[in-house]
C-alpha cells in the first residue's frame, strides 16, 4: 500500500481553501507559515479545519490544536507543524 504524503494532501487542501491563484508561483513547504506567507484569514482556517476533518476524521481537530496555542504561536505556525500534528495522531482503525 503506497504511503500517502500528508504534506501533499495538506497543500492541496490549502489550495482549495485559498484558491490556486493565491499560490501562483509560490511553493508551499513545511516552513511556509499560514499567517505571513499564506495570509490565511480565520474563515479560511475554518474551511481548512473542515477539510481536515473530512479527510482524517475526528482524530485531527485543527480548532482544538490551535486552541492549545497562544496568538504568537498561531501566527508563526507552519505547514510543517500541522503536518507533524496530523502524522502524530493515531490512525483510524480499519473495520
Concise structural overview:
Helix 1 packs across helix 5. The longest helix is centred in the middle third of the chain and has 15 residues. The chain is globular, with a radius of gyration of 13 Å.
Task: Describe the fold and architecture.
With 95 residues, the protein is an all-alpha fold. 53% of the residues lie in helices and 0% in strands. The protein contains five helices and no strands. Helix 1 (6-18) packs across helix 2 (42-56) and helix 1 crosses helix 5.
Topology:
Blueprint: H1 6-18, H2 42-56, H3 62-67, H4 71-76, H5 79-88
Helix pairs in contact: 1-2, 1-5
* Spatial separation of the terminal alpha carbons: 17 Å
Indicate the structural class.
mainly alpha
Order of helices and strands: HHHHH
| Helicity range | 40-55%
The count of β-strands is: 0
By DSSP (H or I, 4+ residues per run), the number of helices equals 5
Oligomer designation: single chain
| Largest beta-sheet details | none
Radius of gyration: 13 Å
Q: Proportion of β residues? A: under 5%
List low-confidence stretches. none
Shape by Cα distribution: globular
The overall average pLDDT, rounded, is 89
Which characteristics define this entry?
95 residues; mainly alpha
